[in-house]
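ZP: hey, is the nicotinamide-adenine-dinucleotide complex queued? I don't see it on the tracker
AM: it wasn't, my bad. submitting now with these inputs:
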Amino acid sequence: MKITIFSVNEYEKSYLNKFNSEDNELIFIKEKLSLNTVNLAKGSTGCCCFVTDDLCNDVITKLKQLGIQFITLRSAGYDHVNLLAAKKNQMVIMHVPKYSPQSIAEFAVALILAMSRHLIKAHTNVSKNDFTLDSLLGFSLQNKRIGIIGTGNIGTVFARIMQGFNCLLYAYDPIRNEECKAYGVKYTSFDHLLETSDIISLHCPLTPETHHIINATAMSKMNDSVMLINTGRGGLIDTTALIPFLKNRSNAYAGLDVYEHERNLFFQNHSEELLTDTEFLTLQSLPNVLITPHMAFLTTDSVESIASITMENIESYKNGKYINTIFYP
Ligand code: NAD
């Protein structure tokens, strides 16, 4: 079976080949899937896509016309897939529901520590032979109130790690998780979490219900020195509201691994260009913001696990026992 793999990165090719079965031919395409590149899938039975790929109605319809029968995502999140189009075209969609929640949860903690102890500024100062301490006064995590929004796979691991820092753990999730409770998490209302947390970490999926879950109203309830961590999806936070919030509260922080308008920015090298996204440029310029390029998942553990589960998904399609489906006819 021929499978076209879009947005393939060099680091993942060897893992995908490692878990591939002999009767599959993998076609590696560096470009992301879009209406401009969709024809590259011609001749394949399946497509394998990443979060950068455009799985809108027109692209899914065109894929179906080209003979594509299934799409398997190399991601847990599927907010970039038009599910109505999948249904309309009877296109099987699979994903990787859980690969290494530890990797993403650890990265959220890395963002917290980097900001609570001013690691980036300290490194920059030392590289300029400035060894003074006045601008580097940090805070300890002990007894800080941590608000976790979404206690699924990643939120649970995050809770377990933060318990080790002796934090006070609170969570908001419509579904309560017994494992989280065992780590000392107390479930509370959304508003109470916003009003009382020192650090808020987002671990829910991006859906129509969670789009801009952190908007101007939500931010107005947070304390002035809150630290907001987003390793979920950019659209969870209303960026237009976040900018004045951070400008007006010099003691507040934002650690962002994802950005609302990252689609044409992240995962590409724009270092030779002048960026035109003024909101991103503003965020970049704020001293209380730490931005990383959607890399919370990026560990060898994750990449190996994603490749292995992706190949299992493909085999399951071949033997008619679809696993990890988001949609199947
Ligand atoms: P999961 O499905 O295991 O958990 C999500 C949790 O969010 C569930 O418990 C669900 O009940 C909860 N939830 C749903 N709606 C909610 C709401 N309105 N308010 C509060 N909680 C709500 O998913 P996961 O594996 O923990 O991943 C979470 C998200 O992290 C993914 O959807 C993806 O967008 C993101 N992610 C990011 C990266 C990265 O590299 N930055 C990597 C993997 C996943």
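AM: back. The chain is about 35% helix and 15% strand.
ZP: great, adding it to the tracker
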